[in-house]
Amino acid sequence: MLAAIASALHVLGIALAATFGTLRLVALRRKDIPGTRLADNGNGIAAILLFGAGFWRLFAELEKPLGFYTANPIFWTKMGVVAVMVGLEMYPQYVVLPWHIRHSRKQPIEPKPGQFERMFKLCALQLPCILVLIVCAALMSRGVGLPTPAAPAAAAMTSRLPGASVYATYCQPCHQPDGRGLGGKAAGDFVGDPTILAKPDAELLDVIARGKTGRIGSMPGWGAALSPQQQRDVLAYLRATFGQSAAHASPAAR
Q1: What are the structural domain ranges in the chain?
Q2: Which CATH architecture has domain 153-247?
Q3: Residues 150-160: pLDDT tens digits?
Q4: How far apart are CA 214 and CA 61, in angstroms?
C-alpha cells in the first residue's frame, strides 16, 4: 500500500511540475508578476511531491532495493538531470523569493530589467528535463541499463525450449540472462536461492500469473499477457535452465 501511495504521489508531482512549469512560462512571457508567483507556488508543491516521493521510494526501498537503482547508469543519468534542474532553478528562486516576501509585507514588487527574460530561458530548459526523467524511470522499471551477465551454460541446451523466448521477453530484463536478478537486487535469484524453484508448480504458476510483492519489490503478473501454455512453458524453461545451474553451483554461489 505504501508503495502504491508513494508511486501515485510521484506521478502527481510529475504532472504538476509539467503543468505549473508551463503556466510559469506563460506568465513570464507576459511579464505577469502575480501569475509568476502563483505558478512558482505550484512548482514548489510539485517539487515536494516529485522529489519527496521519489526519494521516499528510493531510500525506503518500497519497490526495489537501493542496489537495483545504483547499479544502473540510467539512474545516475536521472540524478544528473535532477541536479541540472536544481541548478536551473537557482536564479528564478533568487528573483521570485524576494517577490513573495515583499508581497507578504504588502510592499511593491519592482522587477529589474532582463529578469523576466532570463527566468523564461532557464525555466524553459526545465521542461525537457522532466521528459528525460520520465523516460529514465520507464527504462529503469524494465531493467534496461542493468549489467547483463552471461547466461549459464545450461541456457545453450535449453534455448530451443518454447519458454526461452517468453523468458527473454518478459523475465530477463529483471531476472537477467543468468537468472540471478543482479544477485537478488533486481529480482529473485533462481541460482543463489534454490528454494525458489523448489516450490510446487502450482505456486510458481500463480506467481507468474498474478505477480508478487516481497522484500525485493513488486513483480508484475503476466496472466493477461501470457497464455496458460506460455506460463507453463516459461516455468519449464526456468526449471531446466536455472534449476540445473543451481544444482551445479559452487558453494560460494550458494
Answers
A1: 2-141, 153-247
A2: Orthogonal Bundle (1.10)
A3: 677 777 788 88
A4: 11
